[in-house]
Amino acid sequence: MKDSRIKLGVNIDHVATLRQARRDIDPDPVAAAQVARQAGADMIVCHLRRDRRHIQDADLAKLCRLKGETHVELADDPKMVAAVLSARPTSVCLVPERPGEVSTEGGLDLAKNYKSLAKTVARLKKEKLEVSLFIAPEAPSVRAARNLGADVVEFDTSDYSAAKTKPEQKEQLERLELAVYMAWEMGLTAHAGHGLDYHNVAPVARVPHLSALNIGYSIVARSLFIGLRASVSEMRRLVD
């Protein structure tokens, strides 16, 4: 049973992806954010990538001026941190980023990048931003995230989303539940996301102590057939 109403973060990156295909002004991700909020999104999520393949700096500045929560994903890179700090979002999530990747590939390697992450987390928190780390649902990562001073952990649900059979899905869901419980015991807020869609989201939304789900691609893809307002509303009903 959930502790309370779970937050829905709607990632609008792929609205910008479609716009960037033609380098035009439409579809506007800022307008998409407004529609998503009206349809039940609690947070607007976007990823400012080094290659600017979708969200641009100007988009980010406008999104952060909108009323409500704006949650920005970024790589652990001084230039990216500076760009995001200038926009002043509500919260940020540090994610791994590899040149040429189609989408984010797994959680942060906290052990390998501990010193750099510690410096970046401290810098972001000094600016009064809520800081999240995108991690695998594993005990060592949860402990490291707490030691790094993160406020939030976002658990990578890609293994759950990629599960081909019900037993595999059940195993990955139990792995997630244990990680969320551990984070909760340590005083960390727990979010989850990556690969979640209309077919697999309901069991994740029922995980105790999970505070938010961040979902983008499936919502934007569904919106091509039924409209963005309807696709966000449909996901909101499934999450609730």
Structure report:
With 240 residues, the protein is α/β, with parallel strands linked by helices. It has a single domain, classed as Aldolase class I (TIM Barrel). It is built from eleven helices and eight strands. It has an eight-stranded parallel β-barrel with strand order 1-2-3-4-5-6-7-8, surrounded by eight helices. Helix 9 links the parallel strand 7 and strand 8. Helix 3 packs parallel to helix 4 and helix 10 packs across helix 11. The model has no long low-confidence stretch (mean pLDDT 96).
Name of the top-level CATH class: Alpha Beta
Described by strand count, sense and barrel closure, the largest sheet is: 8 strands, parallel, barrel
Strand order of the largest sheet: 1-2-3-4-5-6-7-8
Give the low-pLDDT segments: none
Strand content: 15-25%
- Class from secondary-structure proportions: alpha/beta
Measured distance between first and last alpha carbons: 11 Å
Helix content: 40-55%
Global outline: globular
CATH homologous superfamily classification: Aldolase class I
Task: Write down the domain tally.
Answer: 1
- Counting H and I runs of at least 4 residues, what is the number of helices? 11
Average pLDDT reading: 96
SSE topology string: EHHEHEHEHEHEHHEHEHH
Quaternary assembly: single chain
Secondary structure tally: strands: 8
